[in-house]
Amino acid sequence: MMTPRMRPFLVLVVLLLVFGCEDSERSSSLPPCKTTDAYWTNCIGVKYFSSTGQHYVGEWKDNKFHGRGTESYDRPPFAGMVYTGEFKYGARHGQGTLRFGSEEYQGEFKNGLADGGGTMTFEDGRVLSGRWQSGQFLSP
Fold first, then answer.
1. What is the 3-state secondary structure (H, E, C) of 36-77?
2. 11: domain CATH number?
3. Is residue 70 part of a domain?
4. Is the Cβ–Cβ distance between 88 and 109 less than 8 Å?
5. Residues 20-70: pLDDT tens digits?
6. In angstroms, rounded to a whole number, what is the distance separating the alpha carbons of residues 91 and 129?
7. Has residue 17 been placed in a domain?
């Protein structure tokens, strides 16, 4: 029987099998976060937030996602969404890939939104590639 404390470790194993030991796990020189500490900083760890169904595997700073990591959700309205890439103080920021169902955005993020160069591939096969700003497509 799986206990609530085992769930984050099971999620980590599944994410590593699906995404193949992302760079956050391989290249990080940070030590593991101590599960007994309430405040995580300058470490790499796994957390599950049961209120939102959010999973995070990656680097932490000042108790926020910061550095490389993978964020996923197992509850509506974001069930199935997976982001792998860079974070800055809790927000998607830098290079990353966001998948939701059969749609995918790959490119730059700023403050949690697509911002900079990027490519969005839609379920029907359409592709938008070019400049994005605050989550909106600007131009090819």
1. CCCCCCCEEEEEEECCCCEEEEEEEECCEEEEEEEEEECCCC
2. 2.20.110
3. yes
4. no
5. 444 444 568 999 999 888 899 999 999 999 999 999 999 999 999 999 999
6. 23
7. yes
Separation between Cα atoms, residue 100 and residue 32, nearest integer Å: 29
Position 15 in a domain: yes
Tokens standing for 102? 């059969």
Is residue 18 one of the residues assigned to a domain? yes
pTM for the complete prediction? 0.80
Burial 70-106 (b: 16+ CB within 10 A, else e): bbbbbeeeeeebbbbbbbbeebbbebbbbbeeeebbb
User: Using omega within 30 degrees of 0 as the cis cutoff, is the peptide bond preceding 4 cis?
Assistant: no
The count of structural domains within the chain is 1
Q: Which amino acid is residue 106, in one-letter code?
A: Q
- CA dihedral sign of residues 57, 52, 132, 65: negative
How far apart are the C-alpha atoms of 132 and 62, rounded to whole Å?
29
Residue range(s) defining the domain that contains residue 11: 7-29+43-115
Tell how far CA 28 is from the center of its chain: 15
